[in-house]
Amino acid sequence: MLTKRIIPCLDVKNGYVVKGIKFKNHEIVGSILDLASKYNEEGADELVFYDIGASTYDGIVSKEWVKQIAELINIPFCVAGGIKNLKDARDILNNGADKISINSPALANPNLIQELANEFGSQCVVVGIDSRYTDNKYIVYSNTGDEKTIKNTQIETKEWIDQVQNLGAGEIVLNCMNKDGVRDGYDINQLNIMLKNCDVPLIASGGAGTKGHFKDVLTKTESSGALAASVFHKDLIKINELKDFLRKNSINIRY
Amino acid sequence: MKIGIVDCGGANLNSIYYSFKRLNIDSFISNSIDELSQMDALVLPGVGSAGKVMDTLSKKNLVSFIKETNKPVLGICIGMQILFDYSEEDNTKCLGLIKGNITKFNKKDVIAVPQMGWNKVECKVDNTLDGYYYFANSYFNKDSDYTVGYTSYGSQFTSIIKKDNLLGCQFHPEKSSNAGEVFLKNFINSI
Fold first, then answer.
1. For the packed helices A157-167 and A111-120, what is the interaxial angle rounded to 10 degrees?
2. Cβ pair A97:B12 closer than 8 A
3. A3, A70, A90 ranked by CB distance to B15: nearest
4. pLDDT digits (tens, 9 = 90+) for A39-67
5. What is B2-189's CATH superfamily?
6. Is the peptide bond before B72 cis (omega within 30 degrees of 0)?
7. Domain boundaries, chain B
8. I need a labelling partner for A163 at 20 to 30 A (CA). Which of A79, B25, B130, B186 fits?
9. ipTM > 0.90 for the complex
10. What is the DSSP letter of A206?
């Protein structure tokens, strides 16, 4: 049986892993390679690197760090942030990333999903979706990295999920914005609604605060995995301990 | 020892190159018969679709070279699938080195397509290779005369094949942590 994936997400800026509140006051947490190694050794099933500095550069972004990660670790990893076209994606994949994840650029140009899937295969193409409960509906938001740019797209989340699958997305990361950063549990209700129409793997994001939250999302929904950032970075939860806990609760987890 | 990674097109040929490098093995990415002929073993890497991979191999005149070689060959993911007769993906005639077909997972039988993540491999004979490996595939072979490792996703499918000089795996050993390293070392030791 396929195991459920535990996925730490690391924010990367100017070659370092950083943390900050809503993309402000970034504080360096550590070197990319040190943290990649640490999570790999603790048993992470996959890593996501979110390049938050990417869009602030003009054009050419050094992806040397992607290559260094690929040389170092032997588990799959995904790079998100700043991928706007085939060339950006090819640079990252050629440097050794297994997947690329796109969010706002896909909303601006949905055909980008299809172009990427045709060129590299669906298994490389992840679409990140920021969804928030607004006026009794789940709505997709774009450019959520900065409160000045954040935009209500008026698109209903389930419609967008349909569309990205039809265009060839191989995986969806659903970030439930109402839960983002509050650490009071994944949005089980929303995830179950969205999973009804989802044929590709869906990764739950937003809300992890305790080990019990991971257990809840992996038993009460058919999410393929659970993504989290701050609980791992702040050492509130260690991945090996989390995985032990989940196995004891009869969840299918890799040793 | 030199291992030739056959450039079948597509991005991310470096992952397998880096994993040999971590094991201190020299490997070279190439699509030239002259260069690949000088290698001790060949890898058909796991990127792209069946149609595109077979197209590239035939454009580079590599089809008969791979079919006729006696060198150890490791096929990874799509690189294993093209060893069979036929793939539903892009309606593709494959190398025909192993009798059998490649079909697509049916969404009715499984939780999601593609299968993405870590799944358990159980071997018929050598259980030292049993363990969790990383899979990323929408297509699979159900069973063959040369299947030595099985995995379940909806139902049981082929995860390792072994025939003469050919070794194939549906998973990505280069992304499968320690289990994957052991698998690759086994291949290296067989060369």
1. 30
2. yes
3. A70
4. 999 999 999 999 886 554 444 456 788 99
5. Class I glutamine amidotransferase (GATase) domain (3.40.50.880)
6. no
7. 2-189
8. A79
9. yes
10. S
